Amino acid sequence: MSAGRARRFEGRRALVTGASRGIGAGIARRLAAEGAAVALVARTAEPGGPLAGSLAETAALAAATGSTAVGVVADLSDPSDRARVVPEAVDALGGPIDVLVNNAAAAIYGPLGELTLKRRRLMFEVNVHAPVDLAQGVVPAMAEAGEGWIVNVSSRTSRPWPGPPFELGVTGTTTGAYGASKAALDRMTNALAAELAPTGIRVNAVAPRAAVMTEGAEALVGDRIGEDRIESLEHMVEAVVALCCGGPELTGRNATSYEIIDELGLAVRSLEGT
Question: Is the pLDDT score of 213 beyond 60?
Answer without folding.
Answer: no
